[in-house]
Amino acid sequence: MMLFLFAIRNCFSVAIVAMTKNISSNPDVPTYTWTNQNIIISSFFWSYAALQFFAGHLAQTFGTRWFLFSTVLVNSVCCILIPFSAALLGGSGVMACRIMQGLFQGFMIPLVSNMLGRWAPIKETSTLNSVVFTGVYVGSISSYIITGYFSASSWGWPAAFYFFGSLGIVWCVFWLLYSAESPAHHTKISHIEKTYIQQSLGQHTDDLVSTRNIPWSAILTSLPYWSIVIAAIGESWGSTLLNSELPTYLSYAIGLDIQKSSVFTALPTVASLIVTLGCGPLASFAVNRGYISKINSRRFFHGYGSLALTVGLLVLPYLDDVTSIACVLTITVGSGSTVVCGHLINPVDISPRFAGVLMGFSNGAGQLVAILAPILVHFVVVDLTDKELWRIMFITAAVIIASTALFFIVFCKTERQWWDEGEKKETKSPPSGETNKAYEAEVTTT
């Protein structure tokens, strides 16, 4: 799922270069004279944050299965409609499709966290989280390269939207056939596996959590949780800037053609895929063997990834050599992906029961702020070929990433918080930040 949604999301960043610049071998492929490219790019994020604040809340009440199905289906249909919308309504039509895609993708991250909270055993959380998030990188890699290929070919950029939209619809069929809301509802796993997952996570009931039992006041006054929110703002700003604007920067400021630009954009994502596949099992191994505490593991992986991104963004705008740019991007973005074992997994640590709710709010807040990144590019980088103007954007991103990472490192926690037990525990709970002792005993005896 993550693969298809990120392919649908990121193919537009490459395609818009071809939509506004005649690069296809086929002269009949349409191009447009839009002057608000960055506003069109940012339109996806206008609505992306909106549903994230409510997605986890809705999943706790109604479940995740049908919401995830709707997310992929709507995104796939809108992807197929983009070429028609561009021809009939111009940039406004494209923005309407992208706004709808962003709105429904708001369900994605919170509901994936919700599913991990129900399905990922405690000792396997880091590994499974990394495996799931590899879809982000595989989807991005495929979208960059395939869109660049289609855009330069006789098929032109519209073929990329038809291709990825069709794949998403095929995924929907398989999801309906093989998905389940929780281990208790899955008919194809063994009783031993089901019992192992449920006991590991302390699942005593198959019922969904009522919305009135979500301890909002405790969550919103929890400093460990706010460290996740702040970290999400920095990570979202950096990823939004790079995913949305890197193809444009490489094409206009560096002067690469679209196929080379798409490959250069994909190379760092390949590195991210490799790092993500490795850091999850490495984190689980180190924590389970006692080589490092869970909290220091989260601090290390988030801090290392943020430091790499900060340094890379400070160096990148001063480089002119194409090979140097490729190396810096690959090392920077690849190393930066270790945050998948930092703040991105932390909601499952502190509250497996409400992980979807927490992730929805934190990712929503992050994306709400990150909307400003491409909009700021539109107003600051008035000449897309001027590297001095791009330098302002990269340095700004570096400062935001570094400062938010520092906040997370200082204030994060990994103990399951007392309020994770919900309303029934609120009247006799320990101070904020401490572990629920009943839960500790429960896990110890299972």
UniProtKB/TrEMBL annotation:
It is a multi-pass membrane protein. The chain crosses the membrane at residues 37-59, 66-87, 99-116, 128-147, 159-178, 262-288, 300-319, 325-345, 357-377, 389-411. The keyword Transmembrane helix applies. One of its GO terms (biological process) is monoatomic anion transport. InterPro entries: MFS (IPR011701), MFS_dom (IPR020846), MFS_Na/Anion_cotransporter (IPR050382), MFS_trans_sf (IPR036259). GO terms for cellular component: membrane. Residues 421-446 are annotated as: Disordered. Residues 1-18 form the signal peptide. GO terms for molecular function: transmembrane transporter activity. Residues 1-415 form the Major facilitator superfamily (MFS) profile domain. Keywords: Membrane, Signal, Transmembrane, Transmembrane helix. It is found in: Membrane. Its main location: membrane. This is Inorganic phosphate cotransporter isoform X2. It comes from Sitophilus oryzae. The gene is LOC115877830.
